[in-house]
Amino acid sequence: MTGLRLGLISLPLCVVSLPGYILYYTLDKNMPIDDWVMESISGDRLTHQVMDLNLDTVYYFRIQAKNAKGVGPLSDPIHFRTNKGTG
Q1: Residues 11 and 58 sit within 8 Å (Cβ to Cβ)
Q2: Where residue 40 sits, what CATH number does that domain have?
Q3: With 90 as the cut, is the pLDDT of residue 60 above it?
Q4: Which of 8, 34, 35, 44 has the highest CB neighbour number within 10 Å of its CB?
Q5: What confidence tens digit (pLDDT) does each residue in 31-57 have?
């Protein structure tokens, strides 16, 4: 098992702060979004660490902003491969 630290984009100061984000990730980008793993992230966080990932595995990630009026559109998927590990 391994972890992955994601950096969120920095927003200009003129942008109203968001209450949070929803991070989704999966091994299969074609699965319905309801079947992806979901983690809530506080709006004041600029990084987030996803834990308990498998070694040498491709994960797909999407993110969605949320505020008092609801959630925004989902980002396009991006992918990362975790490290192969040592040994």
Answers
A1: no
A2: 2.60.40.10
A3: yes
A4: 8
A5: 999 999 999 998 888 788 888 899 999
